[in-house]
Specification:
The chain is an alpha+beta fold. It is built from 25 helices and 19 strands.
Length: about 700
């Protein structure tokens, strides 16, 4: 009997037809293990995980393996994206025991959820020094039967070690000039001057570190910070990490040059990178940054938007290659012959040259991942003859459209339909800003629709967040800190863009919950609420991973909300939370990028910008857009009609003299003279 049929997680539903008798995480599974006196197998993964699929096909769909599991274990499946708290606790144990981690994660536990043996992927037969999965299972069963006392001792020791771990939190001061300077130096040391990015392969898009560098440049004028952002963004956008036909970024590059990606596409990566490129354009006017920001926003709407108006979690790396085989990257890669079949010989050769498609290939079986080298991109060549460059650019766009249309007939990667609150918050922020910057009201409307969905589906009857939903039906997992923080960030950005006060009020509810349920007396933050399910330990991680940590995202949202409302308790909470960044910034800046970005805002602000005027007046719109395009890290923007009854605190007692649209700028509780001149406003919003 498989008990996964009624869950909302698409990852768990992928296993509903396995011969393994899966249980979802819950007290019933552990009670069953206790009743039968058998160990628990915990298997954790996510729907877009390539090796999770491999292990599922090799082992969990295998009748012999399933029979052994069903006889000797209670098998529990967890979607790490739905229950990041469970994943965090047991991944910590895996990393401590093996020195590495990843997914699929395989943990063997007692019926009291105490772990005693760990691993990740296990093959169906011994290879590369790894035992087969069945050998591992047999070994665990033997140990459980013959050495129960030893197993219990190991489990007790590991559980005690995990439960006893405490974060060394010194707080409460946020980083200052010295720590931010050390962070910049650390990133400079790790910077790959040839390809952009930081560190060695595999190379992940460093979205949060790039946000810090953009803010640091805006505040200090440090050219090196901006140069690292520009080089990294260009390297990623011209490489195979970026989908040259449809827009959007893959999860990471397996090499140091951004050539061959791991092809899964995640909502959080694309939301964060859309915003980075929009902010790079805001700072430099880069045509490349503008194009990529808009193409990535369009990718979000085209590929990840759900019928209910939210955004799905991911696209798989694998798809059918046309022969019935599921193969990684099959949807995205090309050979010269395939290009010629779609485009004809002449344009096929043109496309092969432009997109670096060779006979040898850059990927498997002679196929190539499309790239767009700078010297071959006429849209970026300002020195070329303009008539010739225009014709070349038009030809390139024609080729892209035809290849994109042809690719649409290939079997598509599966989509994880799960809507995650935190990641939708990131998407709301990205789409609202990108729509405002580039005057795309459809993007702002998409952000508003996603926020409406969260409000309608992701708040329970206590007014608390639910982490996930699918098809408009809420899941059963409580929201974690990153959900509250990232949704708050999205709603604050939506308020800045639209001036709709309701988003500010909902943000208050979210951040009050952060202060009440997630904050310790010393100002540190927990990933789970004080009334959430109690695991071996209460997870607490301030480091960025694939997305901003809940800790630092909460600090940023608290800072902004304090500037909007003038309520000091929110800023005090933010500054206390940023104390951890002060400790981590000098030695691990790549892993606290969002915290460093928040620290830049704290050092620069608060800056409050209030734009008052008739919403239909173009002058009001001009001042508002100018305010949004300001690069000062600590600035917040409020928009509204003078004297509106529901005006946000920042807009109160702000008249529009003689009926003219007017902007008020205050910094550090000192206000400048109001202005109706957009150039004067822009000057007031330059950092420094």
């Amino acid at each position: 009997m498989n008990r996964l049929a009624d869950v909302t997680s698409p990852y768990l539903l992928q296993h509903v037809d396995n011969p393994v008798d899966w249980w979802p995480w819950g007290p019933e599974a552990f009670a069953e293990a206790e009743r039968r006196d058998v160990p628990v197998l915990l298997s954790v993964g996510y729907s877009a995980c390539h090796w999770c699929h491999v292990m599922a096909h090799e082992s969990f769909e295998d009748e012999e393996t399933a029979r052994f599991l069903n006889e000797h274990f209670v098998s529990v499946k967890v979607d790490r994206e739905e229950r990041p708290d469970i994943d965090a606790v047991y991944m910590e144990a895996v990393q401590a025991a093996t020195g590495q981690g990843g997914w699929p994660m395989t943990v063997f536990m007692t019926p009291r959820a105490e772990p005693f043996y760990f691993g990740t992927y296990f093959p169906p037969a011994p290879r590369h020094g790894m035992p087969s999965f069945l050998q591992v299972l047999e070994g665990v069963v033997t140990a459980w039967a013959d050495r129960r006392g030893e197993v219990a001792e190991v489990a007790e020791r590991i559980t005690g070690d995990l439960a006893g771990r405490r974060l060394a939190y010194e707080g409460p001061q946020p980083p200052g000039e010295e720590e931010l300077g050390q962070a910049l130096l650390g990133l400079t040391r790790d910077f790959d001057a040839q390809h952009g990015g930081f560190g060695d392969a595999p190379k992940f898009p460093p979205s949060m570190a790039l946000e810090f560098l953009l803010r640091h440049h805006a505040r200090t004028g440090a050219d090196g910070a901006l140069e690292m952002v520009a080089a990294t963004c260009e390297g990623m956008a011209r490489g195979g990490l970026y989908d040259q036909l449809g827009g959007g970024f893959a999860r990471y590059s397996v090499d140091g040059g951004w050539v061959v990606p791991h092809f899964e596409k995640m909502l959080y990566d694309n939301a964060l990178l859309c915003r980075v490129y929009a902010h790079l354009w805001r700072s430099t006017g880069s045509a490349l940054a503008r194009r990529v920001a808009l193409e990535t926003a369009d990718f979000l709407l085209r590929e990840l938007r759900t019928e209910q108006g939210g955004f799905a979690s991911a696209l798989d790396a694998d798809s059918d290659d046309g022969s019935g085989r599921h193969r990684e990257g099959a949807f995205y890669v090309w050979t010269p012959r395939q290009l010629a079949e779609v485009l004809g010989e002449r344009d096929g050769a043109f496309a092969a040259a432009r997109f670096a498609v060779t006979d040898d290939g850059t990927f498997e079986e002679g196929a190539s991942v499309l790239q767009l080298p700078a010297q071959e991109d006429p849209r970026e060549d300002e020195e070329a003859d303009r008539t010739e460059a225009r014709a070349e650019a038009e030809r390139l766009e024609s080729v892209r459209r035809r290849l994109f249309a042809a690719r649409a007939s290939r079997p598509r990667p599966e989509r994880d339909e799960k809507v995650v609150a935190a990641w939708n918050g990131l998407a709301i922020a990205a789409l609202a800003e990108t729509g405002a910057y580039f005057q795309r009201p459809d993007l702002v409307e998409a952000a508003r629709a996603a926020a409406d969905l969260l409000l309608a589906v992701h708040f329970d009857d206590r007014g608390r967040l639910v982490r996930t939903s699918r098809d408009g039906v809420p899941g059963t997992s409580d929201g974690v800190l990153e959900d509250y923080a990232d949704v708050a960030e999205g709603l604050l950005t939506l308020y800045a863009v639209t001036g709709e006060t309701a988003w500010l009020e909902i943000t208050r509810t979210l951040l009050d919950a952060v202060l009440r349920h997630f904050t310790a007396e010393d100002g540190s933050l927990y990933d789970t609420a004080d009334d959430a399910e109690q695991l071996i330990r209460r997870p607490q991680d301030p480091a960025d991973n694939a997305a901003p940590s809940g800790w630092t995202a909460a600090a940023q949202a608290l800072l902004s909300f304090a500037a909007y409302t003038g309520e000091g308790r929110y800023r005090e909470a933010a500054e206390r939370a940023l104390g951890i960044v002060r400790a981590l910034a000098p030695r691990a800046p790549r892993f606290v990028g969002w915290g460093l970005a928040a620290a830049e805002a704290a050092l620069d602000g608060p800056r409050e910008v209030a734009v008052v005027g008739d919403a239909e007046d173009p002058a009001t719109g001009g001042l508002h857009r100018t305010a949004l395009l300001g690069t000062a890290p600590g600035a917040v923007v409020a928009l509204g009609a003078p004297g509106a009854a529901d005006a946000a605190p920042l807009l109160r007692d702000r008249p529009a003299p003689d009926g003219r649209a007017t902007a008020y700028v205050c910094r550090g509780f000192v206000c400048e003279a109001p202005t109706s001149d957009a150039e004067a406003l822009a000057e007031a919003l330059r950092a420094g």
